[in-house]
C-alpha cells in the first residue's frame, strides 16, 4: 500500500498496521525529527517526522526529501528493519551517521541523504548493507577516508559522494566485485591515482572525478567500453597524448570533460583526436579536432592556448546546419554536466551549442568561416589578443544568444547587420579599439553602455558620445578626412618634385646654352 501526505488525513491511521510506502517529499515540512511523537500526530500538528516510524514493521519505503527538516536522524528510525528505500535528500539534517544504527537496515537497497549538513566519517558498518544498490551522500560535510569495508557492497551500482571533504586514496576501496554503473567522487580531496580496480567495472557508464588531486590514468581505462560520461576536470593528470590514445577505445563516450589538467603539455602536430565518433561534449586543452562529427559543445577556455584560431573549428558539422543538429539524440546523461555554477544539464538535446575559447592567448583574426556555424548559440572569444575587424559573416549566426568578444584588440566598425540575430540577449565588445556607430534597433536597444566601455571611438545613444557630434565624427568621415589629407600631402610632394624637375631642366639647358655661346662669340682682347 502506498500513501502520500497529500492524500486524505483520514487514511493516516492505517500507516502503522498496513502501509509499506510513505512519501512526504515536497510538503514544506520543517522542524526537528521529534523523538517522542507518534508519526501520525507529528505530521498532523508540527509537520515533523518521528522516530516512532521504527515501529512501522511493514514500512519498506520512506521518502521525506525536499522539506526543511532539521536535527539528526533519530536512532529509533532505524528500527524499521523492513525499510528498503530511505530518502531524506535536500533537508537541513545534521550530525553524523551512527554506524550501530545504520547496520540495522540490512534490507536497505536505496539510501539517499544527499544535500544536508551531515558530518563525520562514513561508518565502517556501511559494508554490511549487502543489498545496497544506490548510495547518495552528496553535498554534505563528511570527512576522512572511505572505509575499505565499502568494498563489500557488491550490489552497489550507483554511488555519489560529490561535494564533501572525503580524502585519501580511493584505492582503499576495491571496486572489482561491484556492478558499478555510475560513480561520482567529485569535489573532494582524494589523491593518488585512479584505482586499478575501477577499470574492472565493465558496466560503468558514468565516472566523475573532477576537482580532486588525482594524478594518473592507466591504459586500462580502455577496458571501460560502456563508458559514456567522463569528467576529470581540475586534477593533476599528465601525458595528454597517452590519455587520448587510451580513451579513443571507449567508443560509447559522448561527454568528455578534462579541462585544467595537462599543464604545459601540447599534443604533437601529427597527433589528432580520432576514434571519438559519438563524442558530443568536449572540454579539453588544445588539440587538432579531427574525427569529431557529432561535437556541438566545445569549451577550451582558461588554458594557455596560443596562435591563431584553428580554421578546423569552423567545420564542426553539428553547428553548421539544422539538418545535422536534428540528428542529435535526446540522450539522458547519467550524471549532470555543470557548465556554470547555476547551470547543469541532464539531457543532451537541452545543451546550448557552444564555442568557448575565452581566457587564452590567441592571436590573429576571427576567421571568416565563423559564419558557417549557423546553429551556434554561444560564442565566446573574450580575453585573448585577437586583432583585425569583426568579420561581417558573424552576422549569419541567426541563432546566436550570447556573443562575447571583449578584451581583445579588435578594430574597425561594428557590422550593422549584427542586429540580425533576433535571439541575442548577451553582447559584449568592451575593451577593444572599435570605432563608429553602435547598431540600433532590435536587441541592441536593450544592451547598456557596459557592453561597449573601453572603445573611445564608438558612439551611440547609449554612450556618452553621440554620433555626429564634434567629439566623435563618424568612421566614414574620418576615412574621408584621412584620404583628403593624404591626397593633399601627395599633391604637395608630387607638385614640389615636378617643380624641382622643371627647375633642374631649366638650369641644365641654360648651362648648355652658355657653353655654346662661349664657343661662338670670340673674345675681344684689349
TrEMBL record:
PROSITE patterns per the UniProt record, alphabetical: LRR
Signal peptide: none
UniProt-listed SUPFAM superfamilies: L domain-like
SMART domains per UniProt: LRR_TYP
Species for this entry: Miscanthus lutarioriparius
A Pfam short name: LRR_1
Cellular component, GO annotation: plasma membrane
Organism taxonomic ancestry: Eukaryota, Viridiplantae, Streptophyta, Embryophyta, Tracheophyta
Listed InterPro entries: Leu-rich_rpt, Leu-rich_rpt_typical-subtyp, LRR_dom_sf
Topology within the bilayer: Single-pass membrane protein
Record localization: Cell membrane; Membrane
TM stretches of this protein: 485-513
Protein name according to UniProt: Uncharacterized protein
UniProt keywords, alphabetically: Cell membrane, Glycoprotein, Leucine-rich repeat, Membrane, Receptor, Repeat, Signal, Transmembrane, Transmembrane helix
Similarity annotation: Belongs to the RLP family.
Domain of life: Eukaryota
Keyword Cell membrane recorded: yes
